[in-house]
Amino acid sequence: xxxxxxxxxxxxxxxxxxxxxxxxxxxxxxxxxxxxxxxxxxxxxxxxxxxxxxxxxxxxxxxxxxxxxxxxxxxxxxxxxxxxxxxxxxxxxxxxxxxxxxxxxxxxxxxxxxxxxxxxxxxxxxxxxxxxxxxxxxxxxxxxxxxxxxxxxxxxxxxxxxxxxxxxxxxxxxxxxxxxxxxxxxxxxxxxxxxxxxxxxxxxxxxxxxxxxxxxxxxxxxxxxxxxxxxxxxxxxxxxxxxxxxxxxxxxxxxxxxxxxxxxxxxxxxxxxxxxxx
Length: 278
Prior knowledge:
Isoleucyl-tRNA Synthetase, Domain 1; 4% strand; mainly alpha
């Protein structure tokens, strides 16, 4: 970048259009902090806005909208031992994983890894947890399952704001204040992770199911078979629980998910470099 060449956007206009948080997130997640060549443009700021700020705001807006409709209030400290739904336990485990990852990477000054962990968490929060939990928030009866869904989402948003505060100081300050009524997220202690072995196992199984879904949807796309068109069955080469079979069937519009571990013998794995990242 050069002032004489003017090969960068006007900072004032960029702050006005995208906000300080989006610009911070792009810079912190770029190669700039790993001794890479800096490249600054409105396109990158817009990408950071879509990847970090908007998902967080949408998750917050979703929670506030339905919590107000149901007049939900925070009653006690979050107790994971009372939560049984796999989706809630998954999100709790993702929060613990985020706390550990960001803490370790920041101690080693790896800001790129820290910031990208935030983006990965937001993707799981919005595109997995909230999307698959909508019916739980929409149903009329306010039972224990719905109560736990609210408590889990609240817990995740509050802890995320505490972890993300050094990266996105403005939006996390606002959201944390609305959710807790406390003075400032920047005056709170760093969250402490409470990982259990069952949490790690659940994360691994969920990631496995997500990978299977991505592969099948990609295969549908290559064969121009729309997701609306149901498939009779698919066969996977790994053992998976019935819970995840149902999720895969629902996500991919498949009537039956079969398991055949011997199918791996028919597959040849090929690894090719992605030129975009070389």
